[in-house]
Amino acid sequence: MENTPILRVENVSKSYNGKAVLKSVSLELNAGQHKVLIGPSGGGKSTLLHCMNYLVTPDSGRIQLDGREVNAHSRKELYAFRQQVGMIFQEFNLFDHLTALDNVAIALRKVKGQSRKEAETRAMAELERVGLADRARHYPAELSGGQKQRVSIARALAMDPKVMLLDEPTSALDPELTGEVVSVIRALARSGMTMAMATHQMEFARALADEILFMQGGEIIERGSPAELLAPGAATRTADFCRRLAEMGGD
Amino acid sequence: MFKKISVVAAVVAACGLMAGPAAAQKVVNGIDANFPPFAYVDKSGKPGGFDVDSVDWIAKKMGFEVSHQPVDWDGIIPSLLAKKIDLICSGMSITEERAKQVSFTDAYWEVKNVFVTKKDSTVTADQLLKGDKKIGVQQGTPEGDWLKDNKEKNGWNFTLRYYDSSPMAVEDVLNGRIDAAGMNDAPAKDAASKKPVKIAGIFGKVDTFGCAVRKEDTALLKKLNDGYKALMADQQWKDLIETHKP
Amino acid sequence: MQHTLDVLIEAVPFLVGGVGTTLLIVIGGMLLGLVLGVPLAVGQVYGNAVTRRAAGLYVWFFRGIPILVLLFLFYYGLFHLIGLNLGAVAAAILVLGMTSAAYQSQIFRGSILSLSQGQFRAASALGMSNAQAIATIILPQALRLSLPGWSNEYSIMLKDSALVFVLGATEIMARTHFVASREYQHMPLYITAALLYFLLTWAGVRSLRTFERKVAIRGYGRT
Question: Which ipTM score applies to this complex?
């Protein structure tokens, strides 16, 4: 069982205007695994996550979900694939014209074809899970950044994804507000959700990751457990990067 | 909410499309409603005038139904050809150019063209044509064409201004923007009866009015010709002239 | 003076009758413009090269030709040629509606482009098709944002409607002209017409603003 990865990325490459952003990247996500992507901005983390959801179509390479390759030319397959892969964006991307509840319920109704009542019951349960049941009737403009990101997590979870991809979920937040989002993600990890996350928060990465992938220049140049890569005095690029982040007052 | 709007939009659009003229076998007379006393729409919205009454009488006599539809003068012949209307009986002068596109009935009216000036003006037709004056005229009329042609031919140096209708030209006479309005004598008398203007003289050639129909509508043309003969032989003709005399 | 007043009092019901025709043309045209303008805007923003080009061509055509010329071209030309036998009002709605669609599509296009692309991506990430994302996420917001532009388009359309007498539709302006020709009371009648247009503009803009408030989203646009 454990040797069939849920999501498998094989030699994925992507370039924009002749500039390679991803250079033949491969990785596997097994059930319940949590992988964290770190590295400098522009290193390809975000593009990789977007490719893993086919929001960005790779120029070459293969992506398999549950051992099945996705046919990127079939829209129907693409839409079905994306449903099973949850995505959390740095900028939350909530639907501004819908309440928190409708933000979560809309895809259940439109994509899964649930009735309004069914969808709202489920949406309410997901909002409760992220601690926002009392904000269900609020519009995005009436929510704090942390609350918005928690709604977006509830929105993704409602679709019952097999994998969650999180693209710097706390980077756009006021540092005061990252805590609530971090604890929701931690709880999600404890519940056994398979995840890949890009982040700059090293403490968070260390606590969450089964494996850290250090990306730079469109390649994964180091990979290993936090213990290996971040051991005191370890001469790794990852440790080096962390030290510099710490010096800059990041984290 | 917006879905509802789209539905309403579609329904309204569909209704609009179907709201074309009913296909009743009614003959529609296109009129220039800005050409009293031959054709006008009165302040309650009812079409009236010498031509309107004549056609009504003829229709009754010849056994067909007619209605009167105001049409923009610029579009009146295209409207006839596009079958939006079936005839034009609205003080239309018979001209060679028009006769290429439509068939005319026999002439039923003779018109002289006259200049309308302010009541206190002393200018004569001759001075208007040969002096450095400004003359207004309704566009698309034979009197307009005559003025333009003869200005070039004779080297006259008046300035010609075109208007949508002759009453608009009369308004500009009163405003002092032009010295005279060139128009048919009947509407000129109509204007003189309502405004401080007078007829200052005759110009151009005598025009004749006829009704226009599509070339292929020979049956209607015959009905109209027969109808006019009957009308002119009737006392009603004199009564109509009397009623509509400005 | 007394005579002028008498004429006006008698003529007002006839002129006000034209308000109905004018409103039918304007509202019909606006709605047709909405129905055609939305797909045009969507085609321009999200379409492939062919639809973008086609929508662009449409907009270029209807924006580039004066409304009076379009009325003539369609009513006496195209409609007649294809055997579409329309009444003057229906034809006016069709031509003004198609023209308005070109302008409205530019309003909608601007609104769509002003929305963050992130919401579209988020909808895709949830498994929505492009059509679903446009219909449920993008358009409800874009149309709300378009309402101020829409009320501007309404007042322009109202004024354009004064031209449709070339087709024989007897709206406010045509009726004013008729009575003026008959009665030689041009100024008082045109002032009355101006008042009617002013009232219609005011009432229309006002109701659109009320509608805008009604569909407003709490806190939206308050960034």
Answer: 0.92
